Amino acid sequence: MIIGAVLTQNTAWRNVEKAIDALRAAGLLDGAALLSAPEASVKQAIRPAGFYNVKYRRLMAVMRYLSERSYDWTWWQTAPYGDVRASLLGVHGLGPETADCMLLYAFGRPAFVVDAYTRRLFARLGCTWSSEPYDNVAAHLTRDLPVDTAVYGQYHALIVAHCKAVCKKVPTCQDCALMPLCTLPVERNLPTHST
């Protein structure tokens, strides 16, 4: 999941899967193997994820960071949340979205991932805060939720699934269960559901 979190930056997941498959085939899904592999081999494997030169540097920075802590998962899972997040944000190429993705999906910490899908969906639902800074959006989304890793993961997964299926860049509004709440049909002169 950590490798995927880095590779998915500005890339569709289907392309990340191709890169992960190539890394797997080359025996490079292990941090130590990645760090000792020839640069050209790693870049070739991650090429499908796009921006492979930038992602190579970021991936190596993350692997060095993990290696320096001897891959001690216990620290990332149990240390004070703020310390772990600040530590991740100090790694070259890790912004809040990637750090929170790692916290939630790799380390099992209650971090809410604010991605492009999240911003798109809530902007269309008329939430003006959807364009605010990352941490503000996360605070709005989690304000009324229990601080729970499973809840955050499920909520994020549902947003992603909805946006991939219906609330795409060019949405299929007629298939949307959220249409009565959405501002987009009005903007596009589409009929709205009556309630």
Concise summary:
The protein has 195 residues and is mainly alpha-helical. Helix content is 59%, strand content 0%.
Give your account of this protein's structure.
By secondary structure, this protein is mainly α. The chain folds into two domains: 2-106, Hypothetical protein, domain 2 (Endonuclease III, domain 1, Orthogonal Bundle), CATH 1.10.340; 116-187, no CATH class. The chain contains twelve helices and no strands. 27% of the residues are buried.
Secondary structure: elements and pairs:
Elements lengths: L1 H6 L5 H13 L5 H6 L2 H8 L5 H17 L4 H6 L2 H9 L6 H11 L9 H9 L9 H9 L6 H17 L18 H4 L8
Query: What fraction of the residues are assigned to beta strands by DSSP?
Result: under 5%
Q: Give the rounded overall mean pLDDT.
A: 91
* Total count of helical runs of at least 4 residues: 12
- The CATH topology label of the largest domain is Endonuclease III, domain 1
Radius of gyration over C-alpha positions, nearest whole angstrom: 19 Å
- Total count of strands: 0
Query: Which CATH top level class of the largest domain fits?
Result: Mainly Alpha
Keywords for this entry:
mainly alpha, 2 domains, Endonuclease III, domain 1, globular, 195 residues
